[in-house]
Amino acid sequence: MKNPPTRSSPTPAKRRSRFALAVDDEGIQLLANVSAQLGLPGFYPAVVSFLRALIDAEVGIALQYSMDQRPQYLSVQADAARRRGAREAVYIDGPYVLDPVYQMFHAGRPDGAYAMAEYVPDDFYDSEFYRCFFRNTRLVDTIDVLWRIDARSSIALCLGREMGTPPFGDAELALIRHVLPLAFAAMQRHHQIALPLVRDEDDRLVHRKVETTMAHFGSSVLTRREREVVFYMLSGYSSEQTALRLHTAEGTIRNQRKSIHRKLETGSQAELFSLFIRCIPFAEPDSNADPLVRYQGPARGAAR
Length: 304
Known about the structure:
Layout: H1 25-36, H2 43-55, E1 59-66, E2 72-77, H3 79-83, H4 88-92, H5 100-106, E3 112-115, H6 116-119, H7 128-137, E4 139-150, E5 153-162, H8 170-193, H9 201-216, H10 224-235, H11 239-246, H12 250-264, H13 269-279, H14 291-303
Antiparallel strand pairs: 1-2, 1-5, 3-4, 4-5
Helix pairs in contact: 1-2, 2-8, 10-12, 11-12, 13-14
């Protein structure tokens, strides 16, 4: 009987490493610190430090957004901006409502990492929000991460590069997105074991005043459509993009902008922005009253 033919063993396929992310000793230490800080106040500073190092970002900021109170800073790593006079209070005293990242949170944008070019309005760099808030930060590009804690609150991580450095490329954005499952899992565990942030009544009151101002600013003199246009003006949308969003003609928006300036006695975007901010302390939460009326006072109101 002939022996059965022998079958040659197949050549073992070369196994590909399952880990594509290369992290040096510094990165391992930063990552270890994230783990060590779970449930502790140093957690978000550790997360921001790791993500900054990953993509070589000069600035890193962590904020907690809420539908019920103004934003709370969890970490600010922006030493150069602070030396130039940037102050966190400038943002949380009201302008945050015009921040495109806050607006993404408020609109329920999905968790993820977003390049600045993906979400800012077309005239954002000419807006008063940009001039007033970004002037001292000197940020020229950001990658922003949103992660929802629950139905009414989210974490926002801002990773930024300053003037004089190149903007982020596709590789940096891809790298941040690559590590998001790791970051989100750590953030979820952190919020399961950490003590919740104390809800400050002053923060809640400021937020309610900001929301009331946003809803009723100029209602005593402006039409409903003009108030919609004001929101887009303050947020940095051009007449063209505003027209697209409101499904009307660009010429109509230009005429409404002129009418807004005439009725509010403002001569520029800067004056309109300043008037909006000054009205916030005069807003009456749970009221439909126009904060502009209280800001102007009875004497000026009589003069008009």
